[in-house]
Automatic annotation (TrEMBL):
SUPFAM superfamilies: Acyl-CoA N-acyltransferases (Nat). Keywords: Transferase. The keyword Transferase applies. Residues 1-172 form the N-acetyltransferase domain. The keyword Transferase applies. This is GNAT family N-acetyltransferase. Pfam families: Acetyltransf_1.
Length: 173
Protein backbone atom coordinates (compact mmCIF):
# COMPACT_ATOMS: atom_id res chain seq x y z
CA UNK A 1 0.00 0.00 0.00
CA UNK A 2 1.17 3.50 -0.86
CA UNK A 3 -0.03 6.69 0.86
CA UNK A 4 0.47 9.99 -0.95
CA UNK A 5 -1.14 13.34 -1.59
CA UNK A 6 -3.69 13.18 -4.37
CA UNK A 7 -2.94 15.47 -7.31
CA UNK A 8 -4.68 16.73 -10.42
CA UNK A 9 -3.96 13.46 -12.24
CA UNK A 10 -6.02 11.63 -9.60
CA UNK A 11 -9.17 13.70 -10.03
CA UNK A 12 -11.26 11.02 -11.75
CA UNK A 13 -10.40 8.22 -9.31
CA UNK A 14 -10.90 10.66 -6.42
CA UNK A 15 -14.33 11.69 -7.72
CA UNK A 16 -15.33 8.06 -8.19
CA UNK A 17 -14.23 7.12 -4.66
CA UNK A 18 -15.91 10.19 -3.17
CA UNK A 19 -19.23 9.42 -4.88
CA UNK A 20 -19.03 5.77 -3.84
CA UNK A 21 -18.36 6.90 -0.26
CA UNK A 22 -21.43 9.13 -0.28
CA UNK A 23 -23.60 6.24 -1.49
CA UNK A 24 -22.12 3.53 0.73
CA UNK A 25 -21.62 5.55 3.96
CA UNK A 26 -24.06 8.48 3.86
CA UNK A 27 -23.94 9.06 7.63
CA UNK A 28 -20.18 9.64 7.52
CA UNK A 29 -20.43 12.82 5.44
CA UNK A 30 -22.29 16.11 5.67
CA UNK A 31 -22.58 16.20 1.90
CA UNK A 32 -24.74 13.87 -0.18
CA UNK A 33 -24.46 11.86 -3.36
CA UNK A 34 -27.46 13.76 -4.77
CA UNK A 35 -25.54 17.03 -4.38
CA UNK A 36 -22.06 16.01 -5.42
CA UNK A 37 -22.97 13.79 -8.35
CA UNK A 38 -24.02 16.99 -10.11
CA UNK A 39 -20.72 18.78 -9.48
CA UNK A 40 -18.41 19.35 -12.45
CA UNK A 41 -15.00 17.67 -12.42
CA UNK A 42 -13.40 21.06 -11.69
CA UNK A 43 -15.06 21.10 -8.24
CA UNK A 44 -13.38 17.82 -7.36
CA UNK A 45 -10.06 19.03 -8.76
CA UNK A 46 -10.23 22.13 -6.56
CA UNK A 47 -10.42 19.93 -3.45
CA UNK A 48 -7.13 18.26 -4.24
CA UNK A 49 -5.29 21.40 -3.14
CA UNK A 50 -7.64 23.17 -0.70
CA UNK A 51 -7.05 26.90 -0.32
CA UNK A 52 -4.04 26.69 -2.68
CA UNK A 53 -1.86 25.93 0.35
CA UNK A 54 0.70 23.12 0.16
CA UNK A 55 -0.05 22.19 3.79
CA UNK A 56 -3.59 21.25 2.79
CA UNK A 57 -4.27 18.08 0.85
CA UNK A 58 -6.18 14.87 0.50
CA UNK A 59 -4.18 11.78 1.33
CA UNK A 60 -4.89 8.79 -0.86
CA UNK A 61 -4.25 5.14 -0.04
CA UNK A 62 -3.41 3.09 -3.11
CA UNK A 63 -3.40 -0.70 -3.25
CA UNK A 64 -0.44 -2.58 -4.62
CA UNK A 65 -2.35 -2.57 -7.91
CA UNK A 66 -2.45 1.27 -7.93
CA UNK A 67 -6.17 1.39 -7.11
CA UNK A 68 -7.38 4.22 -4.86
CA UNK A 69 -8.84 2.39 -1.85
CA UNK A 70 -9.03 5.13 0.78
CA UNK A 71 -8.79 8.84 1.42
CA UNK A 72 -8.47 11.40 4.21
CA UNK A 73 -8.53 15.18 3.89
CA UNK A 74 -6.40 17.57 5.94
CA UNK A 75 -6.65 21.33 5.99
CA UNK A 76 -5.23 24.09 8.13
CA UNK A 77 -7.14 27.21 9.06
CA UNK A 78 -5.99 30.22 7.05
CA UNK A 79 -7.27 33.01 9.30
CA UNK A 80 -4.50 34.44 11.48
CA UNK A 81 -6.33 33.91 14.76
CA UNK A 82 -7.03 30.23 13.90
CA UNK A 83 -3.89 29.22 11.99
CA UNK A 84 -2.92 26.94 14.89
CA UNK A 85 -5.86 24.61 14.09
CA UNK A 86 -5.96 21.81 11.54
CA UNK A 87 -8.94 19.70 10.48
CA UNK A 88 -9.33 16.14 9.28
CA UNK A 89 -12.30 15.35 7.05
CA UNK A 90 -13.76 12.79 4.67
CA UNK A 91 -12.06 9.65 5.94
CA UNK A 92 -13.21 6.74 3.81
CA UNK A 93 -11.92 3.25 3.00
CA UNK A 94 -13.59 0.87 0.56
CA UNK A 95 -15.54 -1.84 2.42
CA UNK A 96 -13.41 -4.65 0.99
CA UNK A 97 -10.26 -2.96 2.32
CA UNK A 98 -11.45 -2.28 5.86
CA UNK A 99 -9.89 -3.93 8.91
CA UNK A 100 -6.56 -4.08 7.07
CA UNK A 101 -4.98 -0.99 8.64
CA UNK A 102 -5.73 1.35 5.73
CA UNK A 103 -7.59 3.94 7.83
CA UNK A 104 -4.96 3.80 10.58
CA UNK A 105 -2.17 4.30 8.04
CA UNK A 106 -4.00 7.25 6.44
CA UNK A 107 -4.57 8.80 9.86
CA UNK A 108 -0.96 8.29 10.94
CA UNK A 109 0.32 9.88 7.71
CA UNK A 110 -1.96 12.89 8.17
CA UNK A 111 -0.90 13.30 11.81
CA UNK A 112 2.77 13.03 10.89
CA UNK A 113 2.25 15.69 8.20
CA UNK A 114 0.44 17.94 10.68
CA UNK A 115 3.13 17.60 13.34
CA UNK A 116 5.68 19.03 10.90
CA UNK A 117 3.68 22.24 10.37
CA UNK A 118 5.08 25.13 12.37
CA UNK A 119 2.65 26.53 14.90
CA UNK A 120 -0.03 23.87 14.55
CA UNK A 121 -1.32 23.09 18.05
CA UNK A 122 -4.45 21.02 17.51
CA UNK A 123 -6.45 18.99 15.02
CA UNK A 124 -10.23 18.76 15.09
CA UNK A 125 -12.68 16.44 13.38
CA UNK A 126 -16.26 15.24 13.62
CA UNK A 127 -17.55 11.68 13.61
CA UNK A 128 -21.13 10.45 13.77
CA UNK A 129 -21.78 8.77 17.10
CA UNK A 130 -22.91 5.55 15.40
CA UNK A 131 -19.54 5.18 13.64
CA UNK A 132 -17.84 3.24 16.43
CA UNK A 133 -14.87 1.89 14.42
CA UNK A 134 -13.85 5.40 13.32
CA UNK A 135 -14.34 6.89 16.79
CA UNK A 136 -12.26 4.07 18.28
CA UNK A 137 -9.46 4.69 15.77
CA UNK A 138 -9.39 8.42 16.51
CA UNK A 139 -9.36 7.81 20.28
CA UNK A 140 -6.50 5.33 19.87
CA UNK A 141 -4.42 8.21 18.48
CA UNK A 142 -5.26 10.53 21.38
CA UNK A 143 -8.32 12.39 20.13
CA UNK A 144 -10.74 13.46 22.87
CA UNK A 145 -14.34 14.60 22.70
CA UNK A 146 -14.95 18.29 23.27
CA UNK A 147 -18.52 18.51 22.12
CA UNK A 148 -21.62 16.74 20.92
CA UNK A 149 -23.86 18.15 18.22
CA UNK A 150 -27.27 16.55 18.48
CA UNK A 151 -29.23 16.06 15.25
CA UNK A 152 -26.22 17.22 13.19
CA UNK A 153 -27.22 15.26 10.08
CA UNK A 154 -30.67 14.43 8.68
CA UNK A 155 -30.64 11.47 6.32
CA UNK A 156 -33.69 9.62 5.01
CA UNK A 157 -35.91 10.84 7.83
CA UNK A 158 -33.44 10.04 10.62
CA UNK A 159 -31.28 12.42 12.68
CA UNK A 160 -27.69 11.55 13.55
CA UNK A 161 -25.53 13.09 16.28
CA UNK A 162 -21.90 14.05 15.70
CA UNK A 163 -19.05 14.08 18.19
CA UNK A 164 -16.46 16.83 17.91
CA UNK A 165 -12.98 15.50 18.68
CA UNK A 166 -9.65 17.25 19.21
CA UNK A 167 -6.03 16.17 19.39
CA UNK A 168 -3.71 18.63 21.14
CA UNK A 169 -0.02 18.73 20.33
CA UNK A 170 2.39 19.30 23.20
CA UNK A 171 4.64 21.69 21.28
CA UNK A 172 4.55 24.79 19.09
CA UNK A 173 5.83 23.33 15.86
Amino acid sequence: MEIRFLNSQDVIVYRDLRLQALIESPTAFASSYEQESCFPLTDFAARLRPHNDSANAIFGAFSNKDRLIGMLGFSRESRLKRIHIGSLWSMYVLPENRQQGVAATLLDEALSHARHLTGLRQIVLTVTTNNLPAASLYRSRGFERFGLECDALFINGIYFDEEHLVLHFNHDG
